[in-house]
Amino acid sequence: MIETHVKMKTMILLFGVSERRIFQMVEEGLVVTGPRKGTYALKESVKRYINFLKTGGDNEDVKKAQDAAKLKLTNEQARKLERENDIEEKKVIPASDVVDLLQSVSKEAARIFDNIPIQIKRRVPSLKSKDIEWLKLTIAKARNKFADMESS
Hints:
By secondary structure, the protein is mainly alpha-helical. It has helices at residues 8-15, 19-28, 42-55, 60-88, 95-123, 129-151; strands at residues 5-7, 39-41.
């Protein structure tokens, strides 16, 4: 008995095309997806593909699906160009650049925070050790807050 829903490997073997082409054929409406992820409706897909080959691609449904796929691709390309232009015109900043900058600033701030107790001890030698320890503890709490923000 012939299976009604098959996996990608079977489609590749039957149609003699690449996995990428199968995905394109789904977008074009030539291949029908099955009820479960990664499966395809064999009978309907073969019917549509044979009809496509017979008509030389003149099938109205196939043309509509192809037009929709082309429109989707064109829209995605336009969005990509728009994003690139926005970045070039400095209207937006890539998230990776922002993350890099924040990490750099965070490291510099941590270095400065670490030196505060030492600098205060030098400037105010009369300050008691417990006050310096309190300052170190307060700075550690602030650093931990920043660390929590970085990890979330």
